[in-house]
Amino acid sequence: MHPGSCCWQKGDNVTEEKSKYIIVGGSAAGMAAAHTIRLHDWKGPVTVLSEEPDTPYFRPLIPFLVSGKKCAEDMVLAGCGPYTGRDIFVRTGARVESVNTAEKTVSVQGNGGMAYEKILFATGSRPYIPPEIKGTDAAGVFALRTLAHAKNMAKRVEISDHAVMLGGGLLNLKGAFALLERGLKVTLVVYSPEVLSQLMEPEDAFLIRKALDTAGLTIKTGCSATHIIADSTGVTGVALDSGDEMSCQMVCIGKGVRPNVEFLDGSNVRIDGGIVADRYTACNAPDTFAAGDVAVTFEPVSGDRIMTALWTNAVEMGRCAGRNMAGVKTAYSGTFGILNATQVADEPFVSMGLVHTTNHDFEVYRHATETTYRKVVFNPGGTRLIGAIFIGDITNAGLYRYVIREKMPVMNIKRYIIDHTLHYGHFVTGKN
Amino acid sequence: MSQPKEIFVKTDRCVGCLSCTIACAVEHSKSKPLFGAISETPVPKSRVYVQWVEPEGKVPLVCRHCEEAPCMYACISGAISRDENGVVITDKDKCIGCWTCVMVCPYGVIGRHLEEHKAYRCDRCPDREIPACVSACPTGALVYDTVDSFSGKVRKHASRELLLAEGG
Ligand SMILES: Cc1cc2nc3c(=O)[nH]c(=O)nc-3n(C[C@H](O)[C@H](O)[C@H](O)COP(=O)(O)OP(=O)(O)OC[C@H]3O[C@@H](n4cnc5c(N)ncnc54)[C@H](O)[C@@H]3O)c2cc1C
Ligand code: SF4
Ligand code: SF4
After folding, report:
1. Please, what are the domains in chain B?
2. Which residue of A42, A383, B4, B108 is surrounded by the most CB atoms within 10 Å?
3. Averaged pLDDT score across all residues of chain B
4. Residue pair A98/A263 in contact by the 8 Å Cβ criterion
5. Per-residue pLDDT tens digits for A304-335
């Protein structure tokens, strides 16, 4: 028995626990939902079932464990930011094996069953390991996703001089900087013509590339790994499709993520890539909801179905699901597939909305200086802003996001957008 | 508990003298008097901004400490929280300078401290009865009041509109 749950008798005298709300997955989406439920229903038991051994933490901080700048305690979610709700029971090491939506029960690996009234699927995603790369099970091969991974990676650093990162996305860049800080030599192997190809086009990335080169990263574009070479000590090298071989003691794979949906095999919950959620974050089975990386949702500008892999989106959708579960019907406003802010080396950047413009007839404005770059993208008629990249100077990025998301007519503010001089005052005086 | 006070802006009164921004920077300097403050490195930063709108509008902007603060939910490190007075605060130690909050704040009032690689914003001057910017404003364009009291006086206030549309 745990606080937040109670026992009930089932058919053949099997005692099963029951929690009004069950949340599968205790990370951004799941914990945001749990805390939101608490705001609207202060007494219904909320139980979070989380497969990981660690209590919920801020996942994006794990590279700092590798670099040594933060320790695990600094990343704990409970009590930080908006996560201050009480009476939320988190069971760690509790993997949900299956869900019976007719009986409204879940079965927890090695731990019997549990009944619910409402359930949220917030199982997130896991790294994709391309099967065409051979030898990825060797010691010293990582795909950074969990605190446990980060701890192992930090240990491997101690016996490594050279790390090879496969994939040029943000995750690998963050990992690469953590390793550089630990004094390793780091090589990034990127299949695309340039780094960050998911977030911008090659010509948009030149300042970032320059910053990465200056920071001491070695970058090989246009090639990929075929296999990982290992002996009893673990990884000793990587073979590339170019025929080159590099010796290294560590390999990090950053090739995107895949949703964790397997636990719903055999249930009637609709899966289409991820778990399909409607505008109210509900799934097709009664009293089931989905949020976060695992959910299929929609893009507010185009209306297209998308899946995202962003903390910010997972929290927002989790909060919406929490409201709906507690009976406060709330439509979800959708998410941009691209909504990234960060700093790589000394270069801050923001990329949001629709930014891949080659072979489209969007209205695009670019502006480059020695230290800054921006690209703003309007619809073909030039009446609405649909995407923006700011590098070097990200001033007021939030306003541009707002203009995109609300599909605001831009007639009166267009030149400020193009010149990157838009500020909130333009809205205030327009209305006064 | 008495209702918490907020900083309100009367845009029609602002003459763009920047007294508020100087007072804010000084208040948040290490050596509070002005002469010490201006010689500090890094230069102390203001958390209130006066924006200019053609032809001659001036708009002071400062963190609204929004009800459903988008920055707080977006922060990927748990650095942003709300204190017991309703003030949304950024914990410098926790902040990793990822700028996610800058990307989501619809008012553009989060500053980036480049030397420290940290985000900063209005903290409502915890050591003062009345925030420094409000005290410094010579025209009464900045008002420190409770929502009820202020909105009784002026309801037509645009700075809440975006927020309402955001669901705040
Ligand atoms: C190193 C790194 C840096 C990142 N940086 C950023 C960033 O700067 N900005 C940003 O927006 N995003 C960032 N992200 C992405 C962000 O962390 C994810 O998008 C976010 O964590 C998704 O949250 P979620 O709640 O949907 O799922 P997850 O965080 O994936 O959590 C799902 C949880 O469910 C558990 N689970 C899965 N299956 C089961 C089951 N059957 N039973 C019980 N539990 C289960 C998992 O173990 C996991 O703990 C980063 C990610 C990483 C790895
Ligand atoms: S979103 Fe902007 S205005 Fe609102 S609390 Fe955050 S920083 Fe302040
Ligand atoms: S810059 Fe700091 S306060 Fe802002 S979102 Fe990132 S960690 Fe949070």
Report:
1. 1-62+123-168 (3.30.70), 64-121 (3.30.70.20)
2. B108
3. 85
4. yes
5. 899 999 999 999 999 999 999 999 999 998 88
* pLDDT range class, residue A11, cuts 50, 70, 90: very low
Domains of chain A, residue spans: 6-126+258-325, 132-255, 354-429
Q: What is the pLDDT of residues A37-80, one digit of tens each?
A: 999 999 999 999 999 999 999 999 999 999 999 999 999 999 99
Q: For ligand 2, say whether the CB of B105 is within 6 Å of any of its atoms.
A: yes
Q: Scanning the structure block, which residue is given the tokens 């095999």?
A: A265
For domain A6-126+258-325, the question of CATH label 3.30.70.270 is answered with no
Nearest bound ligand to the CA of residue B119: 3
- Pair of tokens at residue A125: 């995603």
* pTM, two decimal places: 0.93
- From A413, which residue of chain B is nearest by alpha-carbon distance? B53
The residue behind tokens 């209702």 is B3
E runs forming strands in chain B: 5-9, 49-53, 57-61, 80-82, 88-90, 111-113, 118-120, 142-146
CA separation for the pair A205, A202 (Å, rounded)? 5
What architecture is the A354-429 domain classified under in CATH?
2-Layer Sandwich (3.30)
Task: Please name the CATH architecture into which domain A132-255 falls.
Answer: 3-Layer(bba) Sandwich (3.50)
**Is B81 in contact with A406 (Cβ distance < 8 A)?**
no
Sort out which chain A residues have CB atoms less than 8 A from B96's CB and list them. 61, 64
